[in-house]
C-alpha cells in the first residue's frame, strides 16, 4: 500500500476502536463527531482495495459497516420523528442534515435511469426504505411526478414513520405506499415494477447481498431496471461493495463512482429479456454482464443540483 492508503486504513481502524466501545449510537455530539471524522477520512479519492487488506482489517471493516448501518438507522429515525412532529412534514424534510446529499444521489440515479429507459416508469419499488424514505420522496416530488412508489422495509416501525411523513400530502400519500415484509418473501409481486432501487444497507455482507440480488433476478420482469448502491475505494469502509459477479441475469449498463460528498457508487442494470443460457449457448448462467461502462462525472452531475434545475432532466424521458 502507498503511504496515503496506510494512513487512511490506520485512521479508520482508530475511529472504529472508539465507535466499537460506545453503548449508544443514537445521535449525540460525540457520536456525530466520530462519524463525521470517519466520513471525512473515507471521502477523498484513495485507491485502497479493501478486499485485499489483511484479515484483521477485513473483520474491522465488516463490523464497521454494521455499526454505520445501525447509526444511520438511528439518525434517520430521530429526524423522521422530528420532521413528523410538524403539521406538514414534507415541508420540513430538508431538516435532515444530509438532505443535500440525497438530492444529488437521487439526481444521479434519475439521470442514469432516464438515459437508459425510454418511458417514465409507472410503478417502481425501493427496497430498504427505512424510517426516512428520502429517495422515494425526492423522486416522487421532483423527477417522477406521476410514478407510484412501493417502499419495502422489514421494520414495521420504520414504515409507520415513513407513512406518517407523506400522509398529510394528498399527492404523495396516493403515490408512495409501504409494505412491511422481507423482500425475499416477495416473488410474483416483483414483476409489477419497471424499476427497483436497492438500498446500500440491504444485505450487509457478500452472501446476503448476493442472495437478495439473485432473488430479484429470478422474479423481476424481463427488461426491468435494477439500481444498486455500492461503494468504491476507502468509501467501502462505510458501505458494502457490490461485485458485478453478483449480477447474473442482468446486463450492467453503467457504473458511476462519485468524487464529491455523495458516498455511494451507483450501478444500473437491466434484467435480460431471456435466460442467459439462451443468449450464450453453452456458457450457462454464470456469464458476466456483457456491458459495463464508466460514466464520467461531467456527463451526469454537472447539470447542477438545485431543485429548480432538476426539473430539466425530466425531459430526458
Automatic annotation (TrEMBL):
<keyword id="KW-0949">S-adenosyl-L-methionine</keyword>
<protein>
    <recommendedName>
        <fullName>Nicotianamine synthase</fullName>
        <ecNumber>2.5.1.43</ecNumber>
    </recommendedName>
</protein>
<dbReference type="Pfam" id="PF03059">
    <property type="entry name" value="NAS"/>
</dbReference>
<comment type="similarity">
    <text>Belongs to the nicotianamine synthase (NAS)-like family.</text>
</comment>
<keyword id="KW-0808">Transferase</keyword>
<dbReference type="GO" id="GO:0030410">
    <property type="term" value="F:nicotianamine synthase activity"/>
</dbReference>
<dbReference type="InterPro" id="IPR029063">
    <property type="entry name" value="SAM-dependent_MTases_sf"/>
</dbReference>
<dbReference type="GO" id="GO:0030418">
    <property type="term" value="P:nicotianamine biosynthetic process"/>
</dbReference>
<comment type="function">
    <text>Synthesizes nicotianamine, a polyamine which serves as a sensor for the physiological iron status within the plant, and/or might be involved in the transport of iron.</text>
</comment>
<dbReference type="InterPro" id="IPR004298">
    <property type="entry name" value="Nicotian_synth"/>
</dbReference>
Amino acid at each position: 500500500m502507498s503511504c496515503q492508503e496506510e494512513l487512511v486504513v490506520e485512521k479508520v481502524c482508530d475511529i472504529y476502536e472508539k465507535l466499537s466501545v460506545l453503548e449508544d449510537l443514537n445521535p449525540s455530539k460525540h457520536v456525530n463527531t466520530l462519524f463525521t471524522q470517519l466520513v471525512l477520512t473515507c471521502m477523498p479519492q484513495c485507491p485502497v482495495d479493501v478486499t485485499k487488506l489483511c484479515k484483521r482489517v477485513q473483520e474491522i471493516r465488516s463490523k464497521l459497516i454494521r455499526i454505520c448501518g445501525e447509526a444511520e438507522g438511528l439518525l434517520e429515525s430521530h429526524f423522521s420523528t422530528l420532521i413528523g412532529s410538524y403539521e406538514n412534514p414534507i415541508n420540513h424534510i430538508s431538516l435532515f442534515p444530509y438532505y443535500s446529499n440525497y438530492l444529488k444521489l437521487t439526481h444521479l440515479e434519475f439521470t442514469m435511469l432516464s438515459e437508459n429507459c425510454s418511458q417514465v416508469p409507472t410503478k417502481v419499488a425501493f427496497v430498504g426504505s427505512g424510517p426516512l424514505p428520502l429517495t422515494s420522496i425526492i423522486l416522487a416530488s421532483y423527477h417522477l411526478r406521476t410514478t407510484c412508489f412501493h417502499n419495502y422495509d422489514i421494520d414495521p416501525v420504520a414504515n409507520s414513520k415513513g407513512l406518517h411523513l407523506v400522509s398529510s400530502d394528498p399527492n404523495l400519500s396516493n403515490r408512495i405506499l409501504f409494505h412491511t415484509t422481507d423482500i425475499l418473501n416477495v416473488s410474483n409481486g416483483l414483476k409489477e415494477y419497471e424499476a427497483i432501487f436497492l438500498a446500500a444497507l440491504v444485505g450487509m455482507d457478500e452472501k446476503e447481498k448476493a442472495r437478495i440480488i439473485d432473488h430479484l433476478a429470478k422474479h423481476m420482469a424481463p427488461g426491468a431496471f435494477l439500481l444498486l448502491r455500492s461503494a468504491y475505494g476507502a468509501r467501502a469502509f462505510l458501505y458494502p461493495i457490490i461485485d458485478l459477479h453478483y449480477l447474473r441475469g442482468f446486463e450492467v449498463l453503467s457504473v458511476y463512482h462519485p468524487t464529491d460528498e455523495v458516498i455511494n457508487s451507483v450501478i444500473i442494470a437491466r434484467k435480460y429479456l431471456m435466460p442467459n443460457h439462451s443468449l450464450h449457448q453453452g456458457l450457462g448462467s454464470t456469464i458476466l454482464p456483457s456491458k459495463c461502462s464508466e460514466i464520467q462525472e461531467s456527463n451526469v452531475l454537472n447539470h447542477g443540483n438545485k431543485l429548480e434545475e432538476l426539473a430539466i432532466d425530466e425531459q430526458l424521458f
